[in-house]
Amino acid sequence: MQRPSAPGDRRRVLWQFIVAPLALFAALVSWAVASPVGASPDDDFHLASIWCGLGERPGLCEPGDAPDARTVPKALLKASQCFAYRQDDSAACELPPADEMISSTRGNFTGTYPPVFYAAMGVMASDDIPASVIWMRIVNAGLFVGLVSLLTWLVPVGLRKLALWPVMLTIVPLGTFIVPSTNPSSWAVISAAGVWLGTYAYLGASTPRRRVALAALVLVLTVMGAGARADAAVYSAFGAVLALVLSWKRVRLSPLTIALPVAVVLISIALFFTASQSGGLGYAEERDSVLVLIAANLVLLPELWVGVFGTVGLGWLDTNMPGTVWVPVVFAFGAIVFAGLRILPARKAVALVGVMAALVVLPLYYYVTEGVFVGSVVQPRYIYPLIIILAGVALYGSARADLRLTRLQLWLVAAFLVIANAVALHTNLRRYVTGTDVRSANLEANLEWWWAGAPLGPNAVWALGVFAFAAAVVVLAWAARVESRGERELADA
User: Fold this and answer.
1) Residue-range definition of the domain harbouring residue 213
2) Do the domain assignments include residue 469?
3) C-alpha dist (Å) from residue 347 to 57, 127, 344
4) DSSP-assigned states of every residue in 149-205
5) Is the whole model's pTM more than 0.90, yes or no?
6) What is the per-residue pLDDT across 388-410, written as a single tens digit (0 to 9) for each?
7) The pLDDT of residue 8
8) For the chain, is the Cβ count within 10 Å smaller at the N or the C terminus?
């Protein structure tokens, strides 16, 4: 593996690969406890599916009243009912006892989703539902930070910016909420952050040991994504194809080098067909209505894309983010991606067109076949993985870690992300501890809900999340600046 030798390089790597990941993990853990059981989208469905992810187990998942039903703790299905879609209501409602069971068809009992995510999370399911949910969220936060850090370490130094920039530019607020959650979209995001870049680095790996390590990581990410959601299986296969496009004529392709992209595609196809998400849509019958749907949705599609940055609510789409969150994030994302277009070789242009086509065609297909418009059926979290990939491909070919940003530009981007995270975390906490009808900077004023026995209160969790995220962003921005300075000195020499 590649190791820096200079003391300054060692210090930078220490901060970049130890301090920054730990800080980001702490920030995501703050988000993990910033919402109650049942807060992520369709959590009643996903929690019941997790508790039955390893099959029937006494007290956790038992036979139901019908072949497509299971008997699960009633609290899993009722947790969100006291606050979902009611912004002014806190999460302060008494859950049924964990031993009170109910038969329900609300779950992945007929193979709507791939089984891998639910089985993995099912390992942590217990009769202590709040503790189990928190542990699942923390584990997913750790998986995200750990796998992205490993990817950053394995790829060549010149590609590290493609592992870090796309993640940090898009993580607030949807990523910070959905990654440390019990929603399968968590793993879809983790997979999208690494499959395409890991495959690209594999194709150009300089040593067998590095190639084997990258292949193992990419296969893990593929199984995670494709094993969580059917659309994530599509994104994994798409990422492998993008890597081949970007490597065209730069890497000598052989049966050995293309083995990984082929494996990614085959695994994605296999897991895609384990889920019934891939079918069951009804087609609009009237040609005129199809044309209207296509035209109207093409005009509205950008609303779906920017929903990733907070224009659409978190949770059950009922935690609305103020403009202080999404305006600076959209500005930073747009500025960085636009700067990346300074370099546009043919391979990159083809890949970018492919990603943009996917962002248009995939949601448009669902809108037209369902006969609905933007705002229904397809949520921003479904296309969030594509936004990460778009940022990565747009930055492909950038010569320096700081993307040639001036010191002022770099620190402005960092400040935008830190401010957006601070406001988003406060808004999310306020939504659940009191409801949005209470307006106060003090999150513990008129407190109505919090975790029983928690060592930290809402204010402390918010402060931890803000400072930890700021530390991660500052360290990564500083590392990019230092690395770019070394690149300039080497070029001058």
Assistant:
1) 7-38+131-442+455-492
2) yes
3) 51, 53, 8
4) HHHHHHS-GGGHHHHHHHHHHHIIIIIHHHTTSSSTHHHHHHHHTTHHHHHHHHHT-
5) yes
6) 999 999 999 887 777 888 889 99
7) 53
8) C
